[in-house]
Amino acid sequence: xxxxxxxxxxxxxxxxxxxxxxxxxxxxxxxxxxxxxxxxxxxxxxxxxxxxxxxxxxxxxxxxxxxxxxxxxxxxxxxxxxxxxxxxxxxxxxxxxxxxxxxxxxxxxxxxxxxxxxxxxxxxxxxxxxxxxxxxxxxxxxxxxxxxxxxxxxxxxxxxxxxxxxxxxxxxxxxxxxxxxxxxxxxxxxxxxxxxxxxxxxxxxxxxxxxxxxxxxxxxxxxxxxxxxxxxxxxxxxxxxxxxxxxxxxxxxxxxxxxxxxxxxxxxxxxxxxxxxxxxxxxxxxxxxxxxxxxxxxxxxxxxxxxxxxxxxxxxxxxxxxxxxxxxxxxxxxxxxxxxxxxxxxxxxxxxxxxxxxxxxxxxxxxxxxxxxxxxxxxxxxxxxxxxxxxxxxxxxxxxxxxxxxxxxxxxxxxxxxxxxxxxxxxxxxxxxxxxxxxxxxxxxxxxxxxxxxxxxxxxxxxxxxxxxxxxxxxxxxxxxxxxxxxxxxxxxxxxxxxxxxxxx
Length: 505
Ligand code: GTP
Ligand code: MG
What we know:
The protein is an alpha+beta fold.
């Protein structure tokens, strides 16, 4: 297909790679402020474990997971997205009586470990946090609050207390022996793959046919970094390697290195582009209309609206097909500009919203499996290059849409897919328009605007009447409200007429 003059913006998309043979850890962290009442709740932890098991099943390269509270150690945006979708899908299993009040989002980051030993230190560090920072502190905190203390009084009491003092406080004041609390809370949970025999079918005589399958098993252990724990589990030794040492004191420098985060260049325009993973298959399985399914596109748009409503720093979003680009304001300090956090939070919120809203757009179609979206963040140094980036995406929308419309019309008219491809090879815009018009009686410009222009999402400067995504019509939207429109963002006059959308100082 033809290239446009905007293609040069691709050179801003820098590649990143983790050097082989590092062990890659992806740590996931939930944004659960809105779910505060799920704290230390067995069902909540069970739900997290179940989502982690699903990740291990979905991605064969993931072999081990450790988690406590709302955190999970594993591989970035895709995992966060898949995790969020699974979380929504499985919610009912764990909370049959309770409505999921809002779409969950997860941030994730990659930690690379150069050896098994470094991985052991990492795990020891996480388990130490589970035990001391999270569980012991939280138990004391909430018991004190329940006993009538205010939040600030409680914080003052617990300030600088040592492990032993917290245990004593729990025992003496509340009769709780910390050691008897469920292991799930004290130790966190591990998941790793072991070979299990499973019946896959029965033969003609009714005898079970068994196969060895790798399946995620849930394990609790006092010390997941211990040599004994590691070496006693053959699958861990096989997949990751033997452990030769026990981990003593955790070097603060090493622990600090686990916290390292890549930051996006300050005062640049950051665009986070998410893209549906294997959407070709997803669209087939869910029988989306070809080449464009209006309901599927509107579902994508409503997810983008939810993302703009959640993140005030996102000023504009543009979506086409299975992708969406989100533009952060130049001065944004969202997640201190830590790229992995920004990408994963957006991708996971978008995905969980997709699953939650599926029914609103497809009331008669079952969601067969949750989708996932990968994400990337790219910095653009100037306003002009940012607008060129957006123009590039809209030109792509146009080129693809025109090609796909011709392609599927040819297929519907009886040509096979190869014949249709050959027929369209080397054709220019004008020729394709003529083909549509002469052979199929379709005026390209009369196709729905959402297909031709893609969708733009932004906040309104002032109250306006909006109907079916077009700013004009009946339904009144208020100032600052997030709206979807299908404008021409290639033309610079659009940006000149709406300077508030991408405002910057
Ligand atoms: P990866 O992104 O590399 O994982 O592959 P992908 O299968 O998602 O392909 P890509 O992102 O390049 O393109 C998106 C694909 O989603 C299209 O090729 C279509 O197959 C499908 N798709 C997106 N929107 C629609 C739609 O409205 N209708 C139909 N039928 N398919 C769509
Ligand atoms: Mg895709």
